[in-house]
Structures are given as structure tokens and as C-alpha cells.
């Protein structure tokens, strides 16, 4: 009789375990479905960029997203002023903008005391 009692306890534990296991699997499957329904990060970036290009009347741009020393995302959008699609090799004229870059670089060198 004692053995039968222990066996029924094991059956109860097994049922509890199986119920928890099934519950966990249901939650995991639900999470996978939710994650599958959400757009990828690349899709979100594409949607944001194309919306901003439309809103700001930007005909084309090249985008590079970096993190630390790694390039995480690179893509060309729209058309260059030559009506050619923007690629990663498309060169954009920057006109007098290079003067601002040079000024910032010199100021940084002065701040870091590399130029005295």
C-alpha cells in the first residue's frame, strides 16, 4: 500500500510537470508568433528612411549605421542628382561643408592639446 501511495504521488508530480511543460510551450509558441508578426529592424529602418525622404523631399541618400568599430547596416535609397539609383559607391557633392568638418577637427585637436 505504501508503494501505491508513492506511485500516486509520482503520477501527481508527473501530471503537474506535464501541465507546466505544456503551459511553457504554449507561451513560447505565442511569443514566436508575436515576434514573427513584428517587422525586422531592417524593415523598420527602411520605413523610417523612406517616410523621411518623402516628407523632407530628399531625392536620395546613402545610409551607414555603425556601432563601435563595426558597420551594422548600409544601404542606398532613392536617386542621385544624375537620376541613377543611389548605391554604396555613389558620390555626393558636399560643397562648402568640408570647411565645417575641418574647423571641427582643428577645434578637437586644440581641445585635446595636440595643437598648441
Write the layout of secondary structure elements.
Elements: H1 2-37, H2 41-56, E1 60-67, E2 70-78, H3 97-111
Structural class: alpha+beta
* Adjacency order of strands in the biggest sheet: 1-2
| DSSP strand content | 5-15%
DSSP strand count: 2
Counting structural domains, the number is: 2
Q: Stretches where pLDDT falls below 50 for ≥5 residues? A: 5-10
Envelope shape: elongated
Mean pLDDT: 79
Integer-rounded radius of gyration: 29 Å
> How far from one another are the termini?
94 Å
What's the story with the biggest beta sheet?
2 strands, antiparallel
Give the helix level as a range of percent: 55-70%
Topology as H/E string? HHEEH
How would you sum up this structure, described in words?
The protein is of the alpha+beta class and 116 residues long. The protein has two domains: 38 residues; 71 residues, no CATH class. The chain has three helices and two strands, in the order H-H-E-E-H. It has a two-stranded antiparallel sheet. The longest helix has 36 residues. The chain starts with a helix and ends in a 5-residue tail after the last helix.
Structural key phrases:
alpha+beta; 2 strands; 116 residues; 2 domains; 3 helices; two-stranded antiparallel ribbon
Short description:
The chain folds into two domains: 1-38; 41-111, no CATH class.
